[in-house]
Amino acid sequence: MTIRVSALLIGLLTTLAAPGSQARAQHVLWTVEGQRNTIYLLGSIHVLRPGDGGLPLAAERAYDDAEQLVMEIDLDDAAADPSAMLATMQQAALLPDGKTLRGVLGSDYDSIRERTGQSGLDLAMLDRFAPWFVATLLLQMELAKRGFAPELGIEARLASRAIDDGKPIRGLETAEQQFAVLGGMPLEEQKRFLLMTLEESTQLDAQVDELVGAWQAGDTDALARMLSDEFDAFPELYRPLTEDRNRAWVEQLDDLLDDRDDYLVVVGALHLVGRNSVVDLLRQRGYTVTRQ
Q1: Are 72 and 267 in contact (CB under 8 A)?
Q2: Considering the domain boundaries, does residue 170 fall inside one?
Q3: Rounded to an integer, what distance in angstroms lies between the CA atom of residue 105 and that of residue 163?
Q4: Quick one: 36 exposed, middle or buried, by C-beta within 10 A (0-12, 13-18, 19+)?
């Protein structure tokens, strides 16, 4: 659950390419043909480590061709500043009056406190916050220890380039909408989400390597299997995290396909694979979506 589900979310806090990956046959990249324009769909993993590389050549060409950049969140917006984002996240994660983290976690509190403490997270300082917030902070800390940083990610790099080039940037949703997805889970499900994050954090290195390797290979079948396996374990998250957001995004892309400008749309790679993915939903609407 940890790295795979959070691949959809890390950009909140949301492309990896190995040296020489430009030579691979396919990428996590599609084109959609409108009446007068083209939309490029690029799958991302939102965070990078030093040395993980940059965009493959096909994605570079897509950026050069596009007049506008579209991301999950508009990274040119003041609200997307990391400090502003954290404040928004903390506000969204506050428990209802009369609720505490200790109370929500119940008899599991002490064991969870011990395990989060091993990662450097003090539960006593987070007693007003919901379990999903603790799980997300824990994951952030573990990824940071491994050298992952959002400022090294493809979204951040593309946003910086677009600002320099004067290309408009759009967001498909707001930070508040993204945080509301996790905040909308019942507290018992949030607790289970935290417990699963702790359990699987011991396998984080293997999960990271598996996810990144599949992305680098352009192996969308493997990515789809990962998505399916993870949500089989946590079906309550599948619809709000993927299908509902995908459907909302496709409504916006449908409007953009009536435009004259070409667009590069960058979203988490797992939104572009599997059942009712953005790619699948666009094809259901009759669009020609071609893998690059």
Answers
A1: yes
A2: no
A3: 44
A4: exposed
Residue 173 lies in a domain: no
Residue keyed to tokens 């909302």: 248
pLDDT digits (tens, 9 = 90+) for 133-169: 999 999 888 888 988 888 877 788 899 999 999 999 9
Question: Token digits for 211?
Answer: 């996810």
List, as one string, the DSSP characters of 179-215.
Answer: HHHHHTS-HHHHHHHHHHHHHHGGGHHHHHHHHHHHH
Q: How many structural domains are present in the chain?
A: 1
DSSP assignment letter at 239: I
Structural domain span for residue 36: 2-159+178-291
Amino acid identity, position 208: V
If phi > 0 it is left, if psi is from -120 to 50 it is alpha, else beta; for residue 147 that is left
**177-202: per-residue pLDDT in tens?**
989 988 999 999 999 989 988 987 88
Rounded Cα gap, residues 18 and 216, in angstroms: 6
CB 123 within 8 A of CB 134: yes
**Does 167 fall in a domain?**
no
C-alpha of 106 from chain center: 30
Q: State CA 21 to chain mean position distance.
A: 22
Rounded to the nearest angstrom, the gap between the alpha carbon of residue 205 and the centroid of all alpha carbons in its chain is 18
The CB density around residue 193, as the number of other CB atoms within 10 Å, is: 24
Inside any domain, residue 273 = yes
> CA-to-CA distance for 137 and 116, rounded, in angstroms?
10
Kindly report whether the global pTM for this prediction surpasses the value 0.85: yes
85-107 per-residue burial string, b: 16 or more CB within 10 A, e: under 16: beebbeebbebeeeeebeebbee
3-state secondary structure of 39: strand
Instruction: With H, G, I as helix, E, B as strand and everything else as coil, classify residue 36.
Output: coil
